[in-house]
Each structure stands twice: as structure tokens, then as C-alpha cells.
Design a protein that fits this description.
The protein has 345 residues and is of the alpha/beta class. The protein has two domains: 159 residues, Rossmann fold; 136 residues, Rossmann fold, CATH 3.40.50. Helix content is 48%, strand content 16%. It contains twelve helices and eight strands. A four-stranded parallel β-sheet has the order 2-1-3-4, with helices on both faces. A four-stranded parallel β-sheet has the order 6-5-7-8, sandwiched between helices. Helix 2 crosses helix 3 and helix 10 packs parallel to helix 11. It is globular. The two termini are 35 Å apart. The structure holds ligand L6N33NVT and fe (ii) ion (2 copies). Pathway: Porphyrin-containing compound metabolism; protoheme biosynthesis; protoheme from protoporphyrin-IX: step 1/1. Keywords: Cytoplasm, Heme biosynthesis, Iron, Lyase, Metal-binding, Porphyrin biosynthesis. GO terms for molecular function: ferrochelatase activity; metal ion binding.
């Protein structure tokens, strides 16, 4: 068949050659168990902690430890923690990410499809990328919702995207959202939302901790930019907040330590205790590295953190919420996404 004949032939809308040109945004976060139960948590932790981007110990050494010890002890403890924060609509991380996608869809209008996926557990990145392609999206903005880049979060999400694309004969075109730790829209959203929350407290706290998820300290020396990104976010945010709350001291800490290696310091839990013991009576903790509230913010910081602070002599403790699907948070997401979609829509 000549080129001319084939071009003259009418093409049905569902023909694979039909130029659909549909654009999608896929919001991605870490992932969470399907239920706050031992079995579901074990499946989730097996996938998560088998990721060589997350635990950088040779598999021949790590897998026996993971399967022989950790997966026999941690799921029960973690399931109990998840049960304390589980809501009507499931895991907070999944429920909030779904709400962010819905709110962004409303802002972007019918010209762009917005969906969400998780790096571990469900809904998987592979299933969503395949479904978007199937539905005629030939351009996808892949947006891992980690303001600070790390190998253990951003890179592994992009790895999973790459693995999904590797299964496709005809791939969609891809853009990925870069880290946004110092984006003016991000710092402005945090300043607005945290100022609102702090102003609603009975008093301005003496100390505000900016608590970021930790990482093994070794990753810093290997060149992972995560620690530097956290420090820069903290500096810009502290400068922005100083205008509204000049008396409030702002410090940076790292939470959620896992395993035996040395992690980034200072640690959030020991700092909360040390501050109370040193005479600080009122404290607030913000977690700017989390785009959505999750186990690590709602259980570790809001519940355990309060117990620690009060037991050490503190009197007033507030765990501030993440940007989630607040107006400020959605203004930021919309701005970042529109910037990345330039030329596509
Ligand atoms: C926001 C950035 C995150 C970084 C960086 C990060 C690194 C990291 N995490 C672990 C181990 C665990 N993290 C767990 C939960 C968890 N971690 C993040 C985010 C980051 N992790 C989130 C958003 C969550 C919450 C998930 C939820 O369902 O709500 C857990 C599981 C829970 C538990 O059993 O405690 C583990 C384990 C490592 C080892 C690591 C860096 C190498
Ligand atoms: Fe984590
Ligand atoms: Fe934790």
C-alpha cells in the first residue's frame, strides 16, 4: 500500500495511529499497606524494604535479615501503629493523595487527566501508566510528591516508571517533576499554611521544629542531595516565618530512624525530649518534607512526640498538619504542574 493511499484512508478513533494527544499528570507518593493488619503490612514492608534504593546492603546479607527477623517482628508493631491513624477512607497517605489528585483535576479542567499511584502497594505505577496509555494519553507528567530529592524516594519512583515503560512497545512521552525544595511556590505555601496553624494555637510556641524524614548518614557522603535539600528548605522557610514570628526559635531535625546504621542528625525524638528537659514549655513540630500526612506524621510525631514532650516536662505541644489538599498546598501543586506542562497544554 502506498504512503498516499494509507494517508487517505479514514482512521477510526480507536485505531492505534489515531492522534489523541491526551495529556496526563500522575501524582506519586510512597505507598502504604492495604489494611492496618499484620499480613497486609508484611506484604507492604517486604516490597518496600527489598528495594535496593531503600536498603543499600547487598541482598545476600540483607534478605536473610529482612525475611528472618524484620518481617517476623515489625509487621505486628507497625500494624498497631497504622490502626491508630487509619480513617474511614483507609490509610491517610492514600486518602489524602487521592484528594490531591481530585482537587488538581478540578483546577486543570478537562484538557488534562490527573491520576495518582504509589511506589509500593496499590495502585501501582505500572497499572496506572498502562491504563493512561490505554485511554489514549501519549504524554504523561510523572510527579513524585517529594520536595527534597533522594535516591530512596524520587529515584526509585522513576525506576518503577522505567520498569513499566520497559514492558511497552509504544511508550507515552514522559516528563518528570524535578525536586521543588527551594521553589518559591513551595516555600510560600508552607509559610502561609504554617503561619495560619501557628496563629490558631493558644500561644506562639517557643520552639518550632522542622522535622524531615531521616536517611542513613552514609547517603549524604555518597552524594545524595537529600540532606542539602532539607537544609535549604529549612533555611528558606525559617527566614520566611521569622517575619511573622520573630520570637520563635526554628530548628531542623530528622525523624523515623530505621535500622542500626547512623542516620542524619539531630534526631527529632531525642531533640523533643532534650528541649523539654532544658526548660522549653511549648513546642510545635512541622514536617515540610511530607506532602501528605501519614503514619510518620500522625503516629510518630503527633502521638509519640506529644507523649515524649509531656513526659519530659513540656506543657504545650502541637504537631502541625502537612500541606495535604489545603488551598495553599493545591495552589503550589497547580503552579508546579502548570510550569512543567508548558508546551504540552
Ligand atoms: C518523605 C520522604 C521519605 C524518605 C526520605 C524516606 C526514607 C526512608 N524510609 C525508610 C523506612 C520506612 N519508612 C516508612 C514509612 C514512610 N516513609 C515515608 C517517606 C520517606 N521515607 C512515608 C511517607 C512513610 C509513611 C507510609 C504510610 O503508609 O503512611 C516505613 C513503614 C512504616 C514503619 O513500619 O515504620 C519504613 C520501614 C527508610 C529505610 C528510608 C531511607 C533509606
Ligand atoms: Fe520512610
Ligand atoms: Fe516510622
Amino acid at each position: 500500500m502506498s504512503e498516499m493511499t494509507s494517508q487517505a484512508m479514514p482512521r477510526p478513533a480507536d485505531h492505534p495511529d489515531a492522534p489523541t494527544g491526551k495529556v496526563a499528570v500522575l501524582l506519586v507518593n510512597l505507598g502504604t499497606p492495604d489494611a492496618p493488619e499484620k499480613g497486609a503490612v508484611k506484604r507492604y514492608l517486604r516490597e518496600f524494604l527489598s528495594d535496593r534504593r531503600v536498603v543499600e546492603i547487598p541482598p545476600l546479607v540483607w534478605q536473610p535479615i529482612l525475611r528472618g527477623i524484620i518481617l517476623n517482628t515489625r509487621p505486628k508493631k507497625s500494624a498497631h501503629a497504622y490502626a491508630q491513624v487509619w480513617g474511614q477512607d483507609g490509610s491517610p497517605l492514600a486518602a489524602i493523595t487521592a484528594r490531591q489528585a481530585k482537587a488538581l483535576q478540578a483546577r486543570m479542567g478537562a484538557g488534562v487527566t490527573v491520576d495518582w499511584a504509589m511506589r509500593y502497594g496499590n495502585p501501582s505505577i505500572a497499572s496506572k501508566v498502562a491504563a493512561l496509555k490505554e485511554a489514549g494519553h501519549d504524554r504523561i507528567l510523572f510527579a513524585p510528591l517529594y520536595p527534597q530529592y533522594s535516591g530512596a524516594t524520587t529515584a526509585t519512583a522513576v525506576d518503577a516508571l522505567g520498569a513499566a515503560l520497559a514492558e511497552m512497545r509504544w511508550q507515552p512521552a514522559i516528563r518528570t517533576l524535578p525536586p521543588y525544595h527551594d521553589a518559591p511556590a513551595y516555600i510560600a505555601a508552607l509559610k502561609a499554611d504554617l503561619s495560619r496553624q501557628i496563629s490558631a494555637l493558644p500561644q506562639v510556641p517557643e520552639v518550632l521544629l522542622l522535622s524531615f524524614h531521616g536517611m542513613p548518614e552514609r547517603t549524604l557522603h555518597l552524594g545524595d542531595p537529600y540532606h542539602c535539600h532539607c537544609r535549604k528548605t529549612a533555611r528558606l522557610l525559617a527566614e520566611a516565618l521569622a517575619a511573622d514570628f520573630p520570637q520563635m526559635r526554628v530548628d531542623t531535625t530528622f525523624q523515623s530512624r530505621f535500622g542500626k546504621a547512623k542516620w542524619l542528625e539531630p534526631a527529632t525524638d531525642t531533640t523533643i525530649e532534650a528541649e523539654a528537659k532544658a526548660g522549653v514549655r511549648s513546642m510545635a513540630v512541622a514536617m515540610p518534607g511530607f506532602s501528605a500526612d501519614c503514619l510518620e506524621t500522625l503516629e510518630e510525631i503527633a502521638l509519640q512526640g506529644r507523649d515524649t514532650f509531656l513526659a519530659a516536662g513540656g506543657e504545650s505541644y502541637a504537631a502541625l498538619t502537612c500541606l495535604n489538599d489545603t488551598e495553599a498546598g493545591m495552589d503550589m501543586l497547580e503552579a508546579l504542574v502548570r510550569r512543567e506542562l508548558a508546551g504540552w497544554v
